[in-house]
Amino acid sequence: MKREKKLKNPVASFIIVTNLMFWPLFCLVGAAKMLEFPEWVFQLMLTISAWSSTFAFTVLFKRIYPEQRFAAFVKDAFKCKLKWSVLAMSSFIQISIFGMIMLVVVVNHKPDSIFTISTWGMLIYYFVKNLLSGPLGEELGWRAFALMELQKKHSPLAASIIIGFWWGLWHLPIWLTTGYVGMELIQYVLFFMLSIMSTSIIMTACYNFNRNLIVPIVIHQFFNFFVGLINEKLVVLITYNAFFYVAAAMLIIVINPKKVMYGKKEAKSVVRPIP
């Protein structure tokens, strides 16, 4: 069997292909909305578009790891025993941020209702929908592959910032659907990127403590889920989110900078050959 030629810059190739896949898929999401397709069709297309990074990584896999099986790579991403202390720490950080944002919104904006969802049934539906249309579809490519590859050449902090920037920029088509223009759009994009990049730092720190992909999936899930629960303008929520997530990321760096963010570069992953 002829082997694929190995990519010289796999992370850059991954980012390019991810965007090339996401843009047309997201256009189909927009078409489904404009043509007034049933809601389930719109939600299905939205979920599929969110998996573009996984699709891109799957397509490129044999050019990145020609000696390894895709199924083995996915299995390895979840094989480390889950450390509940790491999950508890990351969850505590995000629940605390959620509580502080709610307090700020109640005090400064006095909404009629603090929550966007009022029934347990809708809450469960929103939780599952959010999980399928973001965290499950994005983390295999962005964290299990791209972050780990970057840490072979860069410190965890540098790798976090690089991934956070490109992961945030990948959302560009979504920014154009917010309805914001002018200064509001600039504010939204600026604080969105700060939120994403600081969350990327938190993800890297927690993921390096416990190399199980469930960890970044849970962090990603809480990030999206909590924002959608609070009844306030999205641009306002993203602004508060950025402030608190940047503070949390800086705190993590200050607490243990040498071990968490400036540790040794990742050793090259062991390739599992195809029998």
Automatic annotation (TrEMBL):
Species this chain originates from: Paenibacillus aquistagni
Keywords: Hydrolase, Membrane, Protease, Transmembrane, Transmembrane helix
PANTHER family, per the entry: PROTEASE (PTHR35797:SF1), PROTEASE-RELATED (PTHR35797)
GO biological process, one term: CAAX-box protein maturation
Keyword Hydrolase carried by entry: yes
Full protein name: CAAX protease self-immunity
Membrane-spanning ranges: 12-34, 40-61, 82-107, 113-133, 154-173, 185-206, 213-231, 237-255
Domain CAAX prenyl protease 2/Lysostaphin resistance protein A-like residue range list: 123-226
GO MF annotations in UniProt: endopeptidase activity
